[in-house]
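Order emerges. For instance:

***
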Amino acid sequence: MSDRWRLADHTDLTEEELDRAAALVKVLDSQTRLEILLLLNEGEKVVHQLVTELDKSQPLISQHLRVLRSAGLVTSSRKGREVLYALSQPDVIGIIHDLASLETIKQAEDELAARRERRQRTATTSREDGSAGAAIIDPPAPVRPELDPGLLPTTPKPIRD
């Protein structure tokens, strides 16, 4: 396999660059991380501010900050007893906005919602025989063992001495 990929806009990317892009996409796959980045775009914040604004637990916010920091998107600095977090790659905000505005994602969400609505309508619509498509709990009368001895188990009962 070639170490370079040719994209539609004629931009060359090495496999290493594609790996970095894939790693960044993995980091951005959490709504909470995206919210943290958007909040940090407004200015430096300490953990308790993020916890309050996002209404999430402190350990959860700290874990997300560790991931963002290890990806190089966030920096931290100590100010007295608190740690200030800041956005280190402001360009990521543009990427977040671009991703949010992609029409294909909205189309996929709309299609999924339409499918769910059709499925729910189908499940709740009554059938011609008056049932709502529920499973049969009792077999119909003509196939009950009392009426058809062929349906009885054929295992003989134990013989007692």
Notes: The radius of gyration is 30 Å.
